[in-house]
Specification:
13% strand; Methane Monooxygenase Hydroxylase, Chain G, domain 1; 7 strands; alpha+beta; 2 domains
């Protein structure tokens, strides 16, 4: 059985193969679309699949960090041919094709399609572990020193998890289609294997939902920490403003040039008034301390 591997969806050879094997023009359009979602569709004599392998690459904004990146692999699996259009730089795609060539059977395209799908799904588990590590680091950082940078990281991971969940939901639907649609290339022998892959995708989706809950908890902890810090600052400012009131009140009264004020004629009047302000301030500090304001 011939296996055609193309690295460029705009390769003219794809048009030749489409004419030779009767590939539907809409499927060719999907292959050449820049942002096609995961799907499985059945043609007259073949099964067309769009899959999304994932791999970790350095984050351009933070070279020491890694971020999940999705690429696309398009597959036309017929009874007597297999066509794959892949990204040659994606390690997940390379691994999937190598496993299909090593463990597959050229006479059974259903097994080749299953091996490619199963390998791609298995590569999602390291991405999930990567998110687990990042969320654990964020939780520790939120308790130690909450900052706006942590908040931006939380929202960045939430966006990445949304993208991952969208791909996994579509992959789950594709696996379900391969199981239940009798017109696909997957025969009865390989439906059990595809069902096992479907179970893996379901586990991955459960993990993503758990991680989203953990991120929401981390966000709540961050907001609570910021609110507590704000309350502490306001408490300190309130205490400082309160203890300054006696001195401000006394100095304001003696600054109005009123006649007949106590100690006005005394040569030690300024010292006495100053000591009085200090005494009132000290008494107020004692009362606030007894009330556990600080």
């Amino acid at each position: 059985m011939p296996w055609y591997q193309l690295d460029d969806p705009h390769d003219p050879k794809l048009d030749e193969l489409a004419q030779k094997y009767g590939l539907h023009p809409l499927h060719i359009e999907d292959v050449r679309s820049a942002d096609e979602s995961v799907k499985v569709d059945s043609g007259a004599n073949y099964t067309f699949a769009v899959l999304k392998p994932v791999y970790l690459r350095p984050d351009p904004d933070s070279p020491t960090e890694q971020m999940p990146t999705f690429t696309t692999i398009d597959i036309f699996a017929g009874k007597d041919f297999l066509i794959t259009i892949v990204d040659p730089v994606c390690p997940a795609t390379t691994e999937a094709l190598e496993r299909a060539r090593r463990d597959g059977d050229d006479e059974h395209p259903a097994r080749l399609l299953y091996l490619i799908l199963d390998t791609i799904v298995d590569r999602y588990f390291p991405a999930i572990d990567h998110f687990d590590d990042r969320i654990d680091e964020l939780e520790d950082a939120v308790f130690d020193s909450p900052s706006p940078q942590i908040l931006s990281q939380v929202f960045a991971i939430k966006r990445e998890l949304i993208d991952l969940r969208r791909v996994l939901v579509n992959t789950r639907d594709a696996c379900l289609h391969l199981q239940r649609d009798s017109t696909t290339i997957i025969d009865t022998e390989h439906q059990l294997y595809v069902r096992d892959t479907y179970d893996h995708v379901a586990r991955l989706l459960d993990s993503v939902e758990t991680q989203r809950d953990l991120l929401n908890n981390t966000l709540d902890i961050y907001l609570s920490s910021v609110a507590n810090r704000t309350n502490e600052v306001m408490k300190v400012l309130t205490v400082l403003g309160t203890i300054a009131l006696p001195a401000l009140a006394i100095s304001s009264i003696y600054g109005m040039n009123l006649k007949g004020l106590p100690f006005e004629e005394s040569p030690h009047g300024a010292l006495i008034v100053g000591l009085l302000a200090l005494a009132c301030t000290g008494l107020l500090l004692y009362l606030l301390r007894r009330m556990r304001w600080f």
